[in-house]
Specification:
About 25% of the residues lie in helices and about 40% in strands. By secondary structure, it is an alpha+beta fold. Among the domains are: about 90 residues; about 110 residues, no CATH class.
Length: about 575
């Protein structure tokens, strides 16, 4: 055997540069420790402790979600080993899908049910054989003997015994067959149900599954332990806001509780990890889109087909060449960026002017099946300006509304609101996006303590003019508002008066007088809005009742048919 002798300077170089030696592959045991969930994705943090030998090592993280965004990979490390993170890479791997425990249990259950079904089938076959044997006995007893005159014929007692045996046996066989048929029908229903569940579960499990395998190359000059943190973005996770608005009647303060409804469909179960919710929207990009030029040109006919195809081929060729140049020029920059980011430490995302983050106080466990979980974010007490709104013509009810201001430092994103009056659930509504310092309205549902009644007092029609050439219809309404509460309340209600679209139709407001609206003579509590709407703003004392009359007339020529008259 010939020995290979290397020069001393080569041996010294190898000893001083362990990166030249083959890298040792290590598959660390890792776990998810944190997740930052955005409105359309999540950034997951996975940690592992590794005992690094001196030299190069490859840390292989297997069976990560297939949707992992390669460009989002970030790695940091801290420990007793003097180590440098060289690079990180990701590749897609495929593995055969193994049946879940639920599928295996259903398969075992189906096998047991099928065995019972075969036992029932065997029993029915046995009963059928007994029936056939009984028929043969009956045939043999009733067939006259042939050839041998000495064969005795059955006596009357033999016939009687045969009939008794036949009746008893047929009764027993029929009863047993009916019992087996019922049991088998029930069993077939169970088998069908188990097969349906299996088909549904098997449809969710493909024959093979795709995963991502992330490899981190590390060079250590001295051996030791290293705590590795791997961060990556994945789709399939989201969160939406939800709110509970609770009005305390005594203090007239709205307690708004802010929740996050989180869904995890990333392909990885979250077990006891730190959860952070962010209002940032990475999918929108970092800047405003570029506005293209608005080109106006003369319409030119399309070139002939061969020329058009040649122009298209030339355009595709030039675009392909440009893309290849762009990729070639960007490759070194990408490598440098990965190597530079490998040595950096993650920073905590803080609330800013364009977004906010919420760190959930308790660890969260959430399976990767896209089911929703509601977590509490924060709670705020907001003094509200309360008033009741009513539209008696459409609904005789008073709806409580609170005008409040977002006095917090974070935005309220648009979402559903469950409304409570003290401890009673009253309604659901929806909240728009509200920024800090912005004023908004909360719909708090119907309060029966404010009674609203509206009825038609009178409607009469009469002819007008010296020759009865005109027609007049007069309406009189009475709206009654009663405050049955122990506190003074403001009630705002709206009524509509007719609006004429033709000069032949003249509408007059008689009560309150139209000419007084907007003047000192008119009641301060009523005003006229657009489209013929009158708005009353009443401040009612405890137990106070107000009656508001409304009278209006409509004049038109008798030969003109008017639509809209009730």
């Amino acid at each position: 055997m010939k020995l290979l002798r290397l020069p001393l300077f080569v041996l010294a170089a190898l000893a001083a540069a362990p990166a030249l030696l083959p890298a040792a592959a290590i598959t660390p045991s890792s776990q998810l420790t944190a997740a930052t969930v955005y409105l359309d994705r999540a950034v997951l943090t996975r940690t592992a402790r590794v005992d690094l030998p001196a030299g190069q090592s490859e840390l292989v993280f297997e069976r990560l979600p297939a949707g992992l965004v390669d460009q989002s990979l970030q790695v940091t490390g801290r420990g007793t080993a003097t180590a440098t993170i060289l690079d990180v890479s990701a590749r897609t791997t495929f593995v055969a899908a193994t049946p879940s425990m639920r599928v295996k249990a259903l398969e075992d259950e189906l096998i047991g049910l099928q065995q019972q079904d075969r036992a029932f089938a065997d029993r029915l076959a046995h009963l059928s054989q007994q029936r056939a044997l009984l028929a043969k006995i009956e045939s043999a007893m009733t067939t006259p003997p042939t050839g041998d005159a000495a064969t005795p014929r059955p006596t009357f007692e033999d016939w009687q015994k045969l009939l008794t045996f036949q009746a008893e046996t047929l009764t027993r066989l029929t009863s047993e067959q009916q019992t087996v048929d019922r049991q088998r029908a029930d069993l077939e229903a169970k088998i069908a149900a188990v097969e349906a569940q299996l088909n549904a579960l098997r449809g969710q499990q493909p024959e093979g599954r795709a995963f991502k395998t992330v490899t981190v190359r590390v060079a250590a000059t001295t051996a030791g332990s290293l705590d590795v943190t791997l961060g990556y973005a994945v789709p399939g996770a989201s969160w939406t806001p939800a709110y509970d608005a609770r009005l305390r009647g005594e203090t007239r303060v709205v307690e708004l509780t802010y929740y996050g409804v989180v869904r995890n469909g990333t392909g990885e179960d979250w077990n006891n990890l730190a959860l952070t919710l962010s209002t940032a929207r990475p999918s929108m990009g970092g800047g405003a889109p570029e506005l293209p030029a608005w080109i106006v040109d003369v319409n030119r006919p399309m070139p002939p087909m061969p020329l058009a195809m040649e122009m298209r081929r030339k355009e595709m060729s030039e675009r392909q060449a440009f893309n290849q140049m762009a990729v070639a020029s960007a490759a070194p920059m990408a490598d440098a960026r990965v190597e530079q980011d490998a040595g950096l430490t993650f920073s905590t995302i803080e609330a800013g002017t364009t977004s906010a983050t919420f760190k959930i106080a308790t660890p969260v466990t959430l399976a990767s099946d896209s089911t929703s979980q509601k977590v509490a974010i924060t709670s705020a007490k907001l003094p509200g300006n309360l008033q009741y709104q009513a539209t008696p013509k459409l609904l005789e009810a008073a709806f409580l509304r609170a005008s409040v201001t977002n006095t917090g430092e974070f935005p309220f994103l648009a979402g559903p609101v469950s409304t409570f009056l003290d401890d009673t659930f009253v309604a659901t509504s929806r909240l728009k996006t509200v920024m800090p310092g912005e004023r908004f309205e909360l719909a708090l549902g119907v309060d029966d303590a404010i009674a609203v009644k509206r009825h038609l007092v009178n409607r009469f029609a009469e002819d007008t003019g010296l020759t009865n050439s005109g027609r007049r219809v007069t309406y009189e309404f009475l709206v009654t508002i009663t405050n049955n509460k122990k506190t003074a309340e403001r009630v705002v209600f709206t009524e509509a008066i007719p609006v004429s679209r033709d000069e032949k139709i003249v509408v007059k407001l008689l009560t309150p007088l139209e000419r007084e609206l907007g003047t000192a003579a008119a009641p301060k509590e009523v005003s006229r809005e657009e489209d013929g709407k009158l708005v009353w703003r009443l401040d009612l004392k405890p137990g106070e009742q107000r009656e508001i009359p409304l009278k209006v007339s409509i004049d038109h020529p008798a030969d003109v048919e008017v639509v809209g008259l009730n």
